[in-house]
Amino acid sequence: MRALVTGATGFVGRKLLARLDDPVVLSRDAQRARQELQAFHPTVFPWEPAKQAAPAEAFEGVDVVFHLAGESVADGRWTASKKQRLQDSRILGTRNLVATIAERNQPPRVLISASAIGYYGDRGDQELLEQDAPGEGFLADLSVAWERESQKAAAASVRVVNPRIGIVLSPDGGALQRLLPIFRKGMGSPLGHGRQYMAWIHIDDLLDLMLLAAEQESISGPVNATAPHPVTNRDFTKILAATLHRPCIMPAVPKFALRLSLGEFAESLFHSQRVIPDVAEQAGFQFRYPHLEDALQHLLAKT
Question: What pTM value is reported for the model?
Answer without folding.
Answer: 0.97
